[in-house]
Design a protein that fits this description.
Blueprint lengths: L1 H7 L24 H4 L1 H13 L2 H26 L18 H31 L1
């Protein structure tokens, strides 16, 4: 996970935001949760499927900063129970973004945030 570490950890902002492209200028708005949630999900999969606690230990501070940052963005932007903001809508393969994203973007983002938080809970238990 060394190359990923260089891109994700070293490229993350002090507020926990992870840019989609690294290196990147600081984003003007939060990044798409459905993309950035990959960071805690992949770390958790390495733990679950390979028993790699060392990866979790190494990445825990940045993982926590990421999830805490998403929570802060939610409090500032969406005012909902979970963060539901998104940028891309690249899951809309057939319909136009204007038609597809209003009904699919927030639920997809919220679901990915919940998956990321569940992954963090699993990793926290592994760390004790």
């Amino acid at each position: 996970m060394t190359n990923t570490r260089l891109q994700v950890v070293d490229g993350s902002a002090s507020d926990g935001n992870i840019p989609v492209n690294v290196p990147a200028a600081p984003p003007k708005k939060p990044m798409d949760i459905s993309w950035t949630a990959a960071y805690p999900l992949v770390a958790n999969w390495l733990l679950l499927y390979y028993g790699d606690v060392a990866v979790v230990e190494e990445h825990w501070p940045t993982l926590k900063r990421y999830v805490d940052g998403q929570q802060r963005q939610m409090e500032l932007i969406s005012k909902t129970a979970v963060p539901d903001f998104f940028n891309f809508g690249d899951w809309c393969a057939i319909e136009s973004l204007a038609v597809c994203t209003p009904n699919t973007g927030p639920p997809a983002a919220a679901a990915n945030y919940i998956l990321a938080v569940e992954a963090m809970a699993t990793m926290a238990l592994a760390l004790g």
